[in-house]
Prior knowledge:
It is built from three helices and five strands, in the order H-E-E-H-E-H-E-E. It is an alpha+beta fold.
Amino acid sequence: MKTDFKVAEVQLTYKNRIPCxxxxxxxGSGTAYHIVKAQFPDExxxxxxxxxxxxxxxxxxxxxxxxxxEGGPCSTAVDVKLILQGAxxxxxxxxxxxxxxxxxxxxxxxxxxxxxxxxxxxxxxxEVNLLDHLIVTRESYFSFVDEGVM
Length: 150
């Protein structure tokens, strides 16, 4: 019997050096928009679609923001496992999804709606609430919650 097993080490880290009192609190879709828009580089917001996630605690204080994917001018692939990993690492209670539409069109596509529901179901299993999904442009945003889409 072989006793010399080689196994890779797994390291999962989350470092939040921002004191609780200094963390941004999201009070609505407008606050979320301003926080997440700052995560989109000016050079690419009108050029390349990106998908971001804001993780929050029970008081809706921001624990962190994760860039899940970056794609081309009209789509980006989203791996739900990466979103779940971020939720576990931050011990998040709530999540807001956000992605940009380089076209400037704020209307969610059918794939946007399907993906949102897939992510909501996966987060529910982990007892993490999906609080909103924003479509972001340089000038404005669309909130799935405010517009009654979710």
